[in-house]
Amino acid sequence: MKMVIHSRLCTQLPVYHGIFMKHKKKSFSMFRGVYVQFRNFHSFKQKIQINGEALYPRWFSVAPMMGWTDNHYRTLARLMSKHAWLYTEMVVAETIVHQKDDLDRFLAFSVEQHPVVLQIGGSNLKNLAKAAELANFYSFDEINLNCGCPSDKVAGHGCFGASLMFNPKLVGDAMSTIAANSDIPVSVKCRIGVDYRDSYNELCDFISEVSSRSPTKHFIIHARKALLNGLSPAANRKVPPLKYEYYFALLRDFPELQFTLNGGITSIEQVKRLMQH
């Protein structure tokens, strides 16, 4: 039954034009094993080693939420689950740099919260480098760059958030800069597209450019596009249609990378159905 579901899914996924050059026009049947490998990886329930520390694999994460996932919220979340990966609220790189004498206010957390991901926002390479360097002291398990927030307070200024998806080269350079000044893995959280630039090929071009220009191997994909004008941040989390098929196609077309699905997942039953794919 699972193979039937899998076969039908494969026939419905979008195709990336660059895949023909990447794999020298080999049959797409070669990707059949990718899903099996993905399921095997995520069904691995023992802890994994990241930078010498034993952590649970990324089965489940609590997404970064401004005004919510602060230190107190994460403490409560950890009491409810020892497995979940927790994210900070987004912290702007300039805030970290300018508040370097009061960083505990923004970055401190208890050791019981591990694994914890620091999400930062920004595009100024100098400030991102300094922010990553300062964050090293706090022993986060990963640094994530926000490329998905559609708020007019963020994206409208062209400095960070979803608007960064218009400039994948800059994102790649930003990730390379963060990684060069950090001792931990780096990741990107993004949408499947922004405004009219929402085709699967454009998403693949973004992933390919960022991963080729930096050591980024992990992308968190919010499976909706972002509309920078006309929708509030809350509406942007509900109105643009979900396209989970983009996520599953990324698993097929970029087997060397890791992708985490985000958006519209509200129940354990839904998680189980998605994992069957």
UniProtKB/TrEMBL annotation:
Active site: 149
Gene3D superfamilies: Aldolase class I (3.20.20.70)
Keyword terms of this UniProt record: Flavoprotein, FMN, NADP, Nucleotide-binding, Oxidoreductase, RNA-binding, tRNA processing, tRNA-binding
Domain of life per record: Eukaryota
Organism, as annotated: Vanilla planifolia
Domain DUS-like FMN-binding span(s) in chain numbering: 62-277
Protein name, entry field: DUS-like FMN-binding domain-containing protein
GO MF terms held by the record: flavin adenine dinucleotide binding; tRNA binding; tRNA dihydrouridine synthase activity
Cofactor(s) the record lists: FMN
Keyword tRNA-binding: yes
Keyword Calcium: no
PANTHER family: FMN-LINKED OXIDOREDUCTASES SUPERFAMILY PROTEIN
